[in-house]
Fold this sequence. Notes:
Layout (H helix, E strand, L loop, with lengths): L16 H24 L6 H8 L3 H7 L3 H6 L3 H11 L6 H33 L1 H26 L6 H23 L6 H14 L2
Helix pairs in contact: 1-2, 2-3, 5-6, 5-7, 6-7, 6-8, 6-9, 7-8, 8-9
Amino acid sequence: MAASARSTPADHAGLGLRERKKLKTRVAIRDATYRLIAEQGYDATTVEQIAVAAEVSPSTVFRYFPTKEDIVLTDEYDPVLEAELRSRPTDEPIIESMKHVITRALKLGFDEDAEMTRLRTRLQVEVPAVRSRMMESMSVTGRLLCRVLAERTDRDPADLEVRVYSMALVGALMETTLYWAEHGHQDDLSDLMTRTLDTFANGL
C-alpha cells in the first residue's frame, strides 16, 4: 500500500539478525530490479538478470518473490500501517486515522527514493501484468483494514459490512495512485490522497 519499494521503518523495529539479513536480501533484489527496469524496460528485464545484479541465485529471487510482478509491488509497509492505525485513538474516525497514516507513509516513501516511487506507479499503469497482480494483492491490505475496523467497531472482521468498507477504501487509494501516475505525477500525491479520503467520507 505504500508508495516506496525500498528499505522501510522495519529496518529499525528491533529485528533479529536473521530477519535483518532477509530484509537486506529483499531490498537488494528490489533495488536491482528497479535499476534494470529503469535502464532497459520491464519486459526486457529477466529474473536471471535480476539475480546477477543482486548477487543472488534465481532460486533465491523466487524464494522471496514468486513472480517478477511481486518484486515491483511487495514492500514491508503493511505491518507498519497496521501498527500506526492501532496507535491512533480508538474513537477517532477511521478516515482521519487513515489521513494521518498515509501522510506518514508517503513521507517515508519519498524520503527513500522519489524517482523509484514514480517508476513503480508508472509500471502499475503501463504494464498489464503488474496492474493485474496489484489487484490481487489488494486483499492483503484489505484484510489488515478489516482487523483494525473490526476492533474499532466491535464487529467480526469477516462481517460483510466490514469487508465491503475495507476493500472499498483500499480500492479508492489504489485508484488515487493510478490517477497520479496517469497524470504524469504532476499533482502532490498527499493532496490527492486527502481528496480521496474526503470523497470517501462525504460522497460526491
